[in-house]
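Job type: complex structure
Entries:
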Amino acid sequence: MSLLSVRSLCVQYQSARGTVRAVDDVSFDLEAGETVGLVGESGCGKSTLGKAVMRLVPSSDGLVILDGQNLTEMQPGALKAARKNIQMIFQDPYSSLNPRHDIGTIVGQPLSVAGWPRRDIRGRVAELMGQVGLPAEAVRRYPHEFSGGQRQRIGIARALALSPKVIICDEPVSALDVSVRAQVINLLKDLQQATGVAYLFISHDLSVVEHVSDRLIVMYLGRIVESGRGEDIWRQPAHPYTHALLAAAPVADPRLARSRNKSVLQGELPSPLNPPPGCSFNTRCPMARERCREEQPVLRTLAGGHMVACHYDLLEQPAALPAVSVAS
Amino acid sequence: MAADRASEPTPILSIDKLEVSLFTRRGVLPAVDGLSLTVAAGETVAIVGESGCGKSLAALAVMRLLPEPPAKIVGGAVRFMGRDLASLSDREMQRVRGKDISMIFQDPMTSLNPVVTVGDQLIEAIRRHTHVSRKEAGDRAIELLRQVRIPDAERRLDDYPHQMSGGMSQRVMIAMAIACGPQLLIADEPTTALDVTVQAQILGLLKELQASSGMGLIIITHDLGVVAETADRVVVMYAGRKVEEARVGALFERPLHPYTRGLLGATPSAVRRRGGRLVEIAGSVPALSDLPMGCAFQNRCPDAFDRCRGGRPALASLLPQQSAACFAAEVELSRNVAAVGT
């Protein structure tokens, strides 16, 4: 049994103009000590999925099973207890820390909520500060005294406080400068090695996700369109959307950047209020046929745990689109 | 440097030892410190650096759009087509801005007027610099929207900015920027707020417009991927100064400045082994009010030695068409030359 199992999870928002299926029938597993990367463009539902797994937004259907316990059916009290096993790191290190609290209070808060005695909290906070590479005296200072990278370290220390089994990282490095981003990515990896925590790593930045993840999930308009091992997907994407994402991602190598095929995906994400019938990608897909406009493809398994939701996947017909040479 | 210049076409823009200071309560801070830069027609120059390195202020200084106070040009010159932009009156500068030099910004949503339709904003931009009727300007606006590939251009003229997606509004910004056929376009983080597939469309569009019009292009970015995709020449900035300049190929293949090397190593890339460690640049960018003596990068530099703490390295041409401001790189290269000589 997996550490975290999500089954047929759906999240719907009601808006004045209709219902948005922000997350639509999503299932995946996360194993202990593993990193699963969740990629997709803005509006694809990746952040909503993260929040729904945390039970920060209500789901309309489906199950979230953490360590054998079904979070979706829990009463608030039980949920609070279960939350010590699942924590979250947010994108914006500026708005996710209370400016009126000192760092000791911020990092110690999950512990006091969980009912730890104050003396133990102080010791644990000191330990956490060391773990995330902040000086011990930082506990008496306030968020505004820290840079973006240091604030993200504070957020990480807070998420780690209760030794969770899963941390949901929602765009944890997107707001950081390049040099600081590398520090935080390395820190997350080190902490995973030391504690065995599993990450659900949500990001729009493919190169970052690819770097940190063991497995990848690609979302489009609320649904998973492809999932599998990172290197498999990177080498040979099966879904035309994944192919387009990889082709569009800028490569920090001028020769490769200019020599590779520039099949730029045209058009933009359709409105989630009014997704197209059939496959939701059919309006932008260079390979779309009659069937794609009529029948929604189901997520089916290819070799080696690689899954794709496409009637005519690229592994079946590798010559259909030019290869994206992102790896040399 | 002299030899390099000879092989390059005459620049349309040349920035010479530009100095921009911020006048704050903490004192006068050198936000842009002696920046020199040229852009030729049809050329793309990327300015790369992290937040606070002065890259955006340098661009605003060229446009004479600095937020004044606190920022002010305190030294140097900006020449565009041989004219010193600082010597122009505000009126003359208004004629240059938007006509000869245009700029697009990171966030299209805040750069467009939310209560005026896209069409009216475009028509205003066109009529400010050309004597055409409203009708002609309207036709030109449709043509521009088509040029930036906005589907259904006629209908879109009546849209307000909030009715468009981020990618669409950035296209409108580009349409407005190229409305009067500028010779130079400055794009400040043009795709940072956009998704990758839209980013690829916008970068492709900019390069295409450049190829057809021959305009010079300055792309300001923190993303080395964007640099690799678009630039001919790259200027790396750190704490207000240019620390390295090179052709794009040389910069990625053989970066001379430790900061450039750090930036490259810190960028995850599919080419590198997955799961490997990224190169960290220790610490963070120092505040302008708190720059160390000597080289501004020394506290974070793996190669720093005594000399770096004593004086500031000047930008030196260390290899053909490649210059860096670094004592360690100078020593390293002279050692190599000596080794070749023996």
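Summary: The first strand of chain B starts at residue 11 and ends at 24. Residues 196-213 of chain B form the longest helix (18 residues).
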